[in-house]
Amino acid sequence: MKKLSLLLLLVRIALPSQLDAQDQERREAFSKGYALFSAGSLAEAEEHFRKTLGGNFVLEDYSLYFLGVLSSSRGRPEESRQHFLRLKQAFPLSVWSAQAGLELARLSLAEGNYQEAAARLRALRTLKIKREISDETFYLLGQLHELLGEPEQAYSVYQELRRVSPLSSWAAKARKEAGRLRTQQPERFALTRVEPLLGEAELLARERDYAEAEKIYRQLLALVSKGPLRPRFLLGLADIFREARKREEAISPLSEIVEKYPQSPEAPAAHYRLAEIYWNRDENVKALDYFKQLLERYPDGPFNDRAHVASARIYESLGKPGDAVRLYREFSRRFPESPLRDEARWRLAWAYYLQGSYEQAHRAFRRLAAGKEGGPYQTPALYWQARAAQKSGRSEDARQIFLRILNSREESYYKGPARQRLEKMGAAVETKRAAQPDPAAATAVSLDPERQFHFSRAQELSRISLHPLAVVELDEIRNSAQDSLPAKLLLMREYARNGAYGRSVALASQIPLASDDLARHRFPLAFWETIQRIARERGLDPYLVLALIRQESVFDPKALSPASAYGLMQLLSSTAARTAARLGLPSPGAPKLYDPETNLTLGIHHLKELLQRYGDNPAKAIAAYNAGEAAVARWEKRIVAEDEDEFIEQIPYRETRV
What we know:
CATH class of the largest domain: Mainly Alpha
Low-confidence stretches: 4-16, 654-658
Shape: globular
Largest sheet: 2 strands, antiparallel
């Protein structure tokens, strides 16, 4: 009996270590399998993935998915089907479950089992799935309709996919298929009537194929020389020019609407767009004239609130704050429910400040600062309330407000200027530490089974340095809307650990507490060693570079802006090429700008050149980094400011606030 008890005790002691060893073996096999799969070594990858099956390995759903893909690609469809079916049955919560359903539909299509394929695709359409899977499902439905001899339904599906997801690769394929159907069956699908042509032009615009959209609008205008449809087509053509950044060419169609169709529904929009074009060209007199026409001709028009604010802003830029004040007051009376209400209140207070009416500015800023907590104008209004108090000779009031900004829980640009103002006043700068969150709260979080399923996989993937896949699992937890403080802290830290700094910063900024831990996550030292090394080689403050990167890309090395700016420091290809030439380096292609070392080398050198140009003035250098040197030259001519904070406040690019 004693021997049996001793044996059981030894088994209990040995079993966990054996299980740990088995887990480690499966972990290593999965890691090797994934690396081989990514490198295209399919046979070797399959061998390693098979070693991970069984034994409750955390990533078994991943192994099943990759084995299904490998079996299919190597000509074993039935084996592939079994892997995908097992994944869906055993792991319904898996991030690969919907993709497995899509793969099963593909297999059914390839085998000619159209009814089963249709059932699987329609089932996927009812689920909340990722956009890329939804788009592919939509596309395959179109293909299925064609196989079933239903071209009208197929064409409708292709066009709908283009409408709902115009910039996806699957929408591009759908566009080709729709074009093929039009060529093959012109009697059904040819674009010969007005409505189909207009629909195609609108789809092309959504797909940003402005050249083809322009051709169709010109075709429509050739078909309709007059009548109520013509101003609609003219406005569509003008909008194409505006989106394609050919605003000069938009003037002609917009002017035709204003002159020939003043009673059309499109006329107010044409007036407003013309005014915008002239405003952007700094032709302020013409812009004001069109805004005035808009307000007089269409007193109840849909653009009138915007026209009031825009006209007032032009008066500000012309150095006529009194006229701006008049228009902002009129706006407040006429449009109390406008979405521009808070902006107009802010700009009214600012107009008072610009015209030297500091008491009125102080009152207006105070009212705005007392508004909705966390609103976008609350902290700016507080800061300028303090500055107006300073200008009015109320230094103690200003000091108290500056301290209030410093002690607020919000991480704001205005904390820097507030601190500088206090130091200039010779005031003691004392900040109060808000209550800190419990550092153990993140480990104390209780996750329900569904979230725990994803969290365990995120941890395992992070352990083997598959950080992008770990982030996918963390996103599943975040999307499930568990809003407790411990859950947010947990996700904040896990995102940062896996390099998803944008998500980590966003979560840290949502937590209304102050602590060193939260500060580290709001302002992470990401890529710090590389930034320090390159910045110091160029004689730059690495913290300035860090702040710029946080604002530009939130530390995402794969960031791509709508203006085609790449990587951590959001470099345009043209800027990168010029900077590389000055450094004696080869011109980098766009993909190379996603490399942190390359991006930082070029971006930091470009920033250094701008600082040298603007006499080490970081505000103007960063403004030029964002908007270009030509824009800064315009602002230097137009903006009248006694102090740097007044100059910065009048810069229309918020990205300069680092």
